[in-house]
Amino acid sequence: MKKKLFYKSIILSFLFIPLIWIPIARAQSGSINNGLNWLLANQNPDGSWGLQGNLTLLNTTEAMNTLKYLGYTGTNYTEGVNWVSSYTATSTDEIARETISLIGAGIFVSVPINTLTGYMNPDNGWGIGELFSSDILDTALALEALRAVNYSDQATISNAVLYLVTKQNSDGGWGFYAGDDSNVYMTAMVLQVFDGLKATYNLTVPISNAAQYLLSHQNSDGGFGSSTSTVYETTLSFLALLGSGQGQALPYSRR
I want to staple 240 with a disulfide (CB 3.0 to 4.6 A). Which of 119, 160, 165, 188 is the partner? Predict the structure, then answer.
């Protein structure tokens, strides 16, 4: 129960839109510029973003990923890169997010990757850290980080993929850990990871089942969220569905 509450607290604390924005948002140049200016103006003096604490790395890497996607690689971005490069990540979550952001900046650091692979459990999943029980969230993050660096040991990646496939619930979704009830956030997150691996692995069935789960859980207001719709879960769900090839089932795609 504590682990589940921990994960939920992380989700509710997300302050930035994730790695990629829905392409249609590019047309709203005024809003994009306003958001960019807000990010630049609210960077901390040390190069990080957000309140200091255990979510600072998360906030900073998401801000960096957003700036990178928008093509902004000026002083603020460089200062963010420097802050992340100097940060000592210890948990699976932190190491994965740090790795993905630094790869986006063209920086490969072997030590975090070696630490990350060392955290892999005998069941081929990852937990919060070394010797922690495997869960869906950390396994998905670790797998995405390994994919980002083109990790050469395909056996490690394929075994991690198999772990996630075998932990998929009968309704097509995933919870935070094996046996947990499916939710929109984790299903969209794993689906997005699988979207990036479908050219290499046969993931047609789990991708289709996950997409159907999300489509069946779209809220009446058009958004996504395990209870009320949230910006983060809606963005993540749209991206995952579009990447899976099921985007045509969304009302947005038929306009």
Answer: 188
The whole-angstrom separation of Cα 252 and Cα 2 is: 37
pLDDT, one tens digit per residue, over 177-234 is: 999 999 999 999 999 999 999 999 999 999 999 999 999 999 999 999 988 999 889 9
Q: What is the DSSP string of the chain?
A: -HHHHHHHHHHHT--S--SS--GGGGG-HHHHHHHHHHHHHTB-TTS-BSSSSTTHHHHHHHHHHHHHHTT--SHHHHHHHHHHHH----SHHHHHHHHHHHHHTT---HHHHHHHHHT--TTS-B-SSTTPPPBHHHHHHHHHHHHHTT-S-HHHHHHHHHHHHHT--TTS-B-SSTTSPPBHHHHHHHHHHHHTTTTTS--HHHHHHHHHHHHHT--TTS---SSS--HHHHHHHHHHHHHHT-GGGSGGGG-
> What CA–CA distance (Å, rounded) separates 233 from 231?
6
**109: region left, alpha or beta (phi > 0 left; psi from -120 to 50 alpha):** beta
Q: Which amino acid is at 123?
A: D
Report in angstroms the alpha-carbon separations of 245 from 169, 206, 238, 250.
Answer: 21, 13, 11, 11
Give the dihedral sign, CA 35/37/41/43. Answer: positive
pTM (2 decimals)? 0.85
Are the C-beta atoms of 206 and 157 separated by less than 8 Å?
Answer: no
CB atoms under 10 Å from CB of 88, counted, come to 9
